[in-house]
Amino acid sequence: MRYISTRGMAPRVDFEGALFSGYASDGGLFMPEELPQLSTETLRQWSTLSYPGLVKELCTLFIGPELIPRDVLNGLIDQAFSRFRHREVVHLSRLRNGLNVLELWHGVTYAFKDLSLCCTAQFLQYFLEKKEKHVTVVVGTSGDTGSAAIESVQGAKNMDIIVLLPKGHCTKIQELQMTTVLRENVHVFGVEGNSDELDEPIKAVFADVAFVKKHNLMSLNSINWSRVLVQMAHHFFAYFQCVPSLDMDPLPRVEVVVPTGAAGNLAAGCIAQKMGLPIGLVVAVNRNDIIHRTVQQGNFSLSEAVEQTLASAMDIQVPYNMERIFWLLSGSNSQVTRALMEQFERTQSVSLPKELHSKRRWESEQMAVLHDRCCVEQCPGNRDPRGGCVMILGTATVTGGG
Ligand SMILES: *Cc1c(COP(=O)(O)O)cnc(C)c1O
């Protein structure tokens, strides 16, 4: 499997290249050159797999045995989930009337990011050990990412991690999760500013290609392809747990509500959709609602400031992974995506071109938005008379947010 940049001006890379680079050299994000289409038969076969089993299947499709042999890959994934508190790793709680919560918080730091980061860290270590190389991971965080990233790489021989946390913007417990790890490879700094402001210098550092190369820097923020890849398993697992039967043709639809910040989880859901998983996506946002403006009005524009809410992990002004979603919506058109994102970077405000924004477009991509002023009952859900159900991807963490 090869990966190309959403902006179309960077060389193609393999999984290892995408894993280690974060952003592509043209400022875009890596996407698979082609998305495998899953037949109903494959979906039926996958429907009985455990959560780790699904992660293994998905990673096999997108990494390729020539890079990591299948049995080694399986071992890395088992190792990644070995410290989760729940024996199923991810558990679906059934509430009422088809309303379910996928419990994604059984990892060491209670953040759903534990799931994708611990796998990603295993993949990194595999390649680093093989090549006897060392990297320094640089992470900006409003809480969850920092704790989970530290947990996933602490003690690793070939990696150092530098975490910037916005002073006063993380909960006490998360600050402690980050500042009390006494491993030599973990370096945590408190900085002034909010989490978006803190992303600026990080983006500038990564734009300096020579500097990045010299120091072997890499990011583990949610733009990293490997994280998106692992998160696809949430959507498959949710679907198989919620769907009343897989014997119907076509398969019933399940609606997945995704608490959204940087839209990594959402991008994973969009890719799963494109591969043939019959899910509808409902984007749940709080007052930081750029995605709401985008889907409703085609208005992808920055708000004046980040608004602090109880769900600090969703207090994000720029949902970076929307670039992947625009690319998918445009039919993998890198020219359209590049023009749009470059204009956004210049003016911080873009009206989506018509071919991207039409009600029909978003609906055919099956995406709706749930604002925090709405309640779950207002979800478009249950549009499938054969019993599609509403499902919430529960990402709640020690912040109580999400
Ligand atoms: C990271 C996070 C989110 C947002 O996830 P994205 O994939 O960045 O959209 C939502 N809720 C919680 C609790 C999180 O930690």
Short description:
GO terms for molecular function: lyase activity; pyridoxal phosphate binding. The chain has 402 residues and is α/β, with parallel strands linked by helices. It has a domain of 175 residues: Rossmann fold.
Please describe what this structure looks like.
The protein has 402 residues and is α/β, with parallel strands linked by helices. The protein has a domain at 225-399: Rossmann fold (3-Layer(aba) Sandwich), CATH 3.40.50. Helices cover 40% and strands 17% of the residues. It has 15 helices and 14 strands. The strands form four sheets. Strands 3-4-14-9-10-13 form a six-stranded mixed beta sheet. It has a four-stranded parallel beta sheet with strand order 7-6-5-8. A two-stranded antiparallel sheet has the order 1-2. Helix 11 links the parallel strand 9 (254-259) and strand 10 (279-284). Helix 3 crosses helix 4 and helix 11 packs parallel to helix 13. The longest helix is centred in the N-terminal third of the chain and has 19 residues, at 113-131. It is globular. Residues 380-387 and 398-402 have low confidence and may be disordered. Pyridoxal-5'-phosphate is lined by residues 111-113, 144, 222, 259-266, 313-314, 395-397, 401-402. Pyridoxal-5'-phosphate (PLP) is lined by residues 111-113, 144, 222, 259-266, 313-314, 395-397, 401-402.
Give start-end ranges of low-pLDDT stretches.
380-387, 398-402
* Biggest sheet: strand arrangement: 3-4-14-9-10-13
Q: What's the alpha carbon Rg, rounded to whole Å?
A: 20 Å
Name the overall outline: globular
User: How far from one another are the termini?
Assistant: 33 Å
Kindly identify the CATH topology of the domain at 225-399: Rossmann fold
Let me know the number of strands: 14
- List the secondary-structure elements in sequence, H or E: EHEHHHEEHEHEHEHHEHEHEHEHHEHEE
Percent of residues in helices comes to 25-40%
Global structural class: alpha/beta
CATH architecture of the domain at 225-399: 3-Layer(aba) Sandwich
Domain Threonine synthase N-terminal: 2-81
Cofactor: pyridoxal 5'-phosphate
Keywords: Lyase, Pyridoxal phosphate
Protein name: Threonine synthase-like 2
